[in-house]
Amino acid sequence: MKVKNKLKFWQYLRPKYSLYALIILLGIVFSFHSVRIKTTFSELRIAPEEIKIPQENVTSPAAKQALEAGLALYQQSRQQSPRLLRQAITKYETAWQLWQKVGDKSSQSVALSGIGQAYSDLGETSKALEAYNQALKLRRAIRDRNGQVTTLGNIASLERSQGNLDKSQKRIKAAIAIIEDLRKNYTNLDQRSAYFASVQGYYKFYIDLLMQLHKQNPKQGYDAQALHIAERSRARGLIELLRDAKANLCKGIDPNLLKEEERWQEKYNEKEKILSHYLNQPQQPTQLIAATQKEIKNIIKQQDRIAAKIHAQNPDREKVINPKPNRDILKLPQIQKLLDKNTLLLHYSLDQKNSYLWAITANSISSYQLPGRKQIEDTAQKFRGGIQTPHELPPEVIQSANELSQIILAPVAKKLPGKRLVIVADGALQDIPFAALPDVNQTPQTQGELNYQPLMLNHEIVNLPSASATAIQRQKLANRKPAPKKLAVFADPVYSPNDERVAAQKQNKQLNPIVAKLTTDMSEMEQVERSQIETLIRNQPSRGFTRLPGTITEAEAILKLVPTASRQQAIGFDANFNSATSNSLDQFRILHFATHGFVNYDKPELSGIVLSLFDRQGDSIPGFLRLEDIWNINYPADLVVLSACETGLGKDVNGEGLVGLTRGLMYAGAARVVVSLWNVNDEGTSVLMQEFYQEMLQQNKTPTAALREAQRKLWLNPEFRSPFYWAAFTLQGEWL
Fold it and tell me: Per DSSP, what are the bridge partners of residue 12?
């Protein structure tokens, strides 16, 4: 018999309780048949200090010992021993019975969870469900909502294993509702992000369950519900980026209101803990319970009052940090309203065993089951690495490209012709250029590159972080007046004191003064992060922040397309931090950065754009426009282009990091952003950008259509035919 589930207990002394009483932290890793969920929940019971359990309580240590013995036996049962599992159940039952005698509902629920887990591993589902349902009843009685989430997830897993998909849906739906309600209890972004990250498995399970229900009942709209859950799960990525970038989400908000918000949330959390303790007593103090419940209601009223004031001062804040499922996260009809008749939205969700694709038009939805995450991501990485060659694509690269197209595009091949493709990717699919994928509707006649027909030849292609993000962006931009001027260009910065443009030819080894100033009062972790940035800046002469001669040619050609009165240029020394963060940039519809840029997946806040690092005297100046800066500046542009972007931290630029830069620029006000997926060739980029702007400014094409045409022209040019030269650039955001 295979042991599928693992149970772990951690024990801490309960403050001000009897010598042997414990707070038990229960973490359960549980497997579902089609997806595996790994999630750890801390079941904390924190009581007011003045409340004590009588010292004459002699059953608590015995219960603790029985629970520990059961855990030890359960851990030994990893060697697939039914005998040890049954012995563990006996110990758990002993602990449960002892805690029943003293009326400790919270500890009873822990013991019952252990019983349920062991019976589940034995395959005795009915007994497992009985134990879990008893644990759930106790956790509801004491308002232990974290515990309820864990138990509901286990019940949902078991119901599904028995083919009771409707019952399973009811349980997982209740679990996610609690998760999304609990999330608002964390005013601190670090805590909110950590919590939401820990429960992502519930969303993946729910998606898979709904798609299984869709197979059974194709006309009941379960696929649309699964799409909605996929959109809901994507809120985590933005929250993490906001946390890591230290984004300023408090623009325009009275600081006293924010302090009040935090203070009332602390009061709410404390009263909930007190109420949970009262409810856990064998003889419940009814008057104290009623009084505490009344206090909680009053606190909620105060929180609503403060929230209304904060919303009036900054309407965007709540949508970003605490999106409401039925208000800010789109459902199918709302997503379809975003689409015109010529647009097809392809929404991907990858998971361990089953992945899914939804194809949405203005009046239809179709869904498809794809292979598991590993197969898709291995193929995607092979394709991505293979096309990053300036030479003719070898047969094996074309084969891997065709394999990926067959996996992720062939299922919707009949829906592709004549459509603009809007992609909401997931996992490693965020890293790949869909424009370079072979068009599955082109039939190869012979073997070889001549039959490689990239998707962009027949389709405009746009990437989105999520459909809901586009809706929020459109609402934000709906009443914005167009900027009066056309174009601001930043190009050819000075990266080295040895640059020929620097008057004093000297190597400046001093710490960037801005870095030194900021380091003074930083925590140890912040100083390490800042040191990483400084190391990057200092070492660039030997690591690749070399001058990009093509950018000046590119900038001059682009500027010629715009009347002098409607343009601004910052070239060389002028392409610096101060000019890039100037308030005057809100006067321009297009911002173009022809410079180095890089992305760090592990630390997105270190991603950014490199501007001039030295002044005319060869002295170090601030020149690193980080993601943290981008979140907090005002770029209300129709388009921001990051041209000649490359990574200074390694060859492989991770797509998740690019999402970080994109979202940062969109939060700063950009309607759409053009970014690159890998280190780009200076000369090829210069040619592509000139074509791109000619199509936009002279032929009046949309940025999406202009980028496609520019890529097509490079593909037709034998010198730049390889996707290496043109496929790295993708447009993200608004496509109209």
Answer: 23
Tell me the percentage of the chain whose pLDDT exceeds 90: 46
> What CA–CA distance (Å, rounded) separates 295 from 272?
10
* Spans of all domains in the chain: 6-183, 255-313, 332-459, 468-733
Pair 697, 659: CB distance under 8 Å: no
What is the chain's alpha carbon radius of gyration, rounded to the nearest angstrom? 29
Instruction: Report the pLDDT value the prediction gives residue 44, as an integer from 0 to 100.
Output: 26
Helices (H), 80-188: 82-102, 105-122, 125-141, 145-161, 165-183
Residue range 419-475, pLDDT digits in tens:
999 999 988 898 899 999 999 998 654 444 447 899 999 999 999 888 887 887 787
Residues with Cβ within 8 Å of residue 336, at least 6 apart in sequence? 360, 361, 362, 363, 365
Domain 468-733 architecture: 3-Layer(aba) Sandwich (3.40)
| Structure letter (DSSP) for residue 454 | B
pLDDT reported for residue 125: 95
Rounded to two decimals, what is the model's pTM? 0.80
Say how many CA atoms lie within 13 Å of 630 toward its Cβ. 29
The yes-or-no verdict on residue 9 having pLDDT over 70 is no
Sign (positive or negative) of CA dihedral 523, 626, 677, 655: positive
Q: Which of 149, 169, 151, 198 is nearest to 40 (CA)?
A: 198
Whether 637 and 589 have beta carbons less than 8 Å apart is answered as yes
Residue 366, classed as helix, strand or coil, is: strand
Query: 245: which 2 tokens?
Result: 């970038």
| CATH number, domain 6-183 | 1.25.40.10
Question: What is the SS3 assignment for 29-44?
Answer: EEECCCCEEECCCCCC
Q: From edge to edge, which strands make up the β-sheet containing 6-13? A: 6-13, 22-31, 36-38
Tokens of 399: 């084969």
CB-hemisphere CA count at 13 Å for 267?
Answer: 17
Scan for tokens 């400084």, then name that residue.
Answer: 534
CA–CA separation, 663 vs 67, rounded Å?
Answer: 48
**And the tokens for 568?**
């601004």
Q: What is the mean pLDDT of residues 221-242?
A: 77
Scanning the structure block, which residue is given the tokens 């030997």?
Answer: 542
Question: In whole angstroms, what is the distance from residue 177 CA to residue 180 CA?
Answer: 5
**If you average pLDDT over residues 621-644, what whole number do you get?**
85
Tell me the CA end-to-end span of the chain in Å, nearest whole number. 57
Structure tokens at 486: 């056309």
Euclidean distance between CA atoms 176 and 289, whole angstroms:
27
| Averaged pLDDT of the chain | 80
